[in-house]
Predict the structure.
Amino acid sequence: MQERLARLEATVRELRRFRQSYLREDTRREPHLEWALRYGLLEATQAIIDISCHLASEKGLGAPATYAECVELLRRAGLLDDNLAQVVTRMVGLRNVLVHEYISVDADRLYALLDRLDDFQAFAEQIRPHIS
């Protein structure tokens, strides 16, 4: 699981570089940049989901039926604080939109998520002590 956590942090670093290199208008104007942004956000979000579900299983916290339930189990066990668990649950929703409704996702909305990269880092910091 350390590898997944390292991959999450590497993806967040790349998303930060993206934010420094490109403006919102660039993303609207260049389809390949929007694609890169979508993929980076999807990869980071999927890493959080994978880590959450793996950790819930490894710690014997229950049998989640959904990705959001994996996060809830971590919250109940005290591995994530309430506020971050809510944020991560919204990330799960983002992942579902990116995967299933990708055509309807607005590029401006995606770009605005670059202002929330600290949430990904907060997840890594809260989870790190619980990964063996």
